[in-house]
Amino acid sequence: MLVTHTWWSGRRVSRRGLIVTGAFAAGARLLGKPSAADPTPPTPAPLSSGSLASAGRPRPVTLHARPMTVTLGEHTINTWAYNGQLPGPLISATAGGVVRAPLVNGLTEATTVHWHGIQIAHHMDGAPGYSQVATPPGGRFDYAFRVPDPGTYFYHSHVGMQADRGLYGPLVVHDPREPLSYDVEFTVLLDDWLDGILGTPDEVLTQLNASADHDDTLRSTLLGGVTGEVRHPLYLVNGRGPETPVTFTARPGRRARFRIINAAADTAFRVALGGHRMTVTHADGFAVKPVTVDTFLIGMGERYDFLARLEDGVFPLVALAEGKGARAFALVRTASGTAPAADVQPTQLDGQLLTYRDLRPRRADNLPRPTRTVLVELGMRPSGNEWTLNDRLAGDPYRLQVERGETIRVVLANLSPMWHPMHLHGHTFQVHVPGGHGPRKDTVNVKPRERVEIDVQARNPGEWMFHCHNLYHQEQGMMGVLGYGPPVRVTGTGTGTGSGTGMGHH
Ligand SMILES: [Cu+2]
């Protein structure tokens, strides 16, 4: 059955986790849309992507990367996005199944789509200069790949600063044997926005490249110092600013699953749901032993799923832009009544904070014991705007060589004055925590002076990007390679964006 509705307005799931579409979904759409009094027109609704009826035989979802105009607060902005939607359409699939999502490039620049967190076949990874040549304007690339693991993921352009425009969207892989029981699920994409307000992301990058300084007023003790490169004019939930918040609607007493995705370029968020505690069930797509907290910090590229039994009323879903004095904001509504103001300060924001040590994986997700250790130092050059992995920049990248089948321990030692959300393509690693096994993840935050150990099992051959998911740091050099066997030199790849030149195909 195919239903047409805004994907963030809710979807009912049976007690056994089967997807129930139809009447409820249609009702949720009506309830979830802004009222007639809402002064801002809603973002064009992602309609009939086919993704809701994907069990078994999903239809392809074509991604048209193209310019669009979007209204954010008082700003009318020309940006780039997929299918005239911000965020792009929800793509959903079932674990073990195949996603087909051809890309049509209607931009004036070459582009790719990267499927963040998926242990994907190498040639489908969307990594320019590593897994493919970026698709030129007017071109097309037929992405089709198997999704081995259930969980919450997202997709985004991997060319230059493009993902800091609107070129991102959610990817949800359902578990055919979903062990959790919940009634409704909401997908929540967080973003920091500057495109069309402070200039284009490329222009902002150029400004940062011309300066050795960092904005010392952007500070967070949770992140160990300066928290980001840019104070953004807007922070978004599902493409909406705090003044015109998205409303997630359900009935009181329902158990809701929230899938929180940080699609921002430069902002960690501290997330809390007013009036509720959150039972975290997944980190970066992988199940963890459920742990109940008041709040969590989510870095760029990370995802957390949590469950909450919804109280009766209207509740703020707050995502503080950590250390930046602003926020993204949405509402959870189970009853009529006045919505809380966008600057409400739920006590949960200062309550019990999730740590990586709280996250325990399923036994089946533990990786083998590593047989060797590799040190990767995260550094900053005196220029203040070049970020390195083992003293090397993306143009001549550090390459971590692995042999197929081995498991290695990578020690990420942050010698730089800023935190870095480090992301590895094509694999999920296991964070090593004192006293036990840590979570499976694909993105891990490393604070200044901190050492984080991750175990990586080499089971997906290719040349894989390994980089900071702060988009500015990525473009300022913080990009290395995890490669299988000796390097193979190939010429003629790359996009001229400075990433991965010289690294080859497999
Ligand atoms: Cu970084």
Automatic annotation (TrEMBL):
Domain Plastocyanin-like: 71-177, 234-320, 384-482
Keywords: Capsid protein, Cell cycle, Cell division, Copper, Metal-binding, Oxidoreductase, Virion
Composition bias, Low complexity: 46-59
Coiled-coil annotated residue ranges, if any: none
GO molecular function, one term: oxidoreductase activity
A family per Pfam: Cu-oxidase_3
PROSITE patterns (alphabetical): MULTICOPPER_OXIDASE1, MULTICOPPER_OXIDASE2
Protein's GO biological process: cell division
Region annotation (Disordered) ranges: 33-59
Protein name as it appears in the record: Multicopper oxidase with three cupredoxin domains (Includes cell division protein FtsP and spore coat protein CotA)
Organism this protein belongs to: Nonomuraea wenchangensis
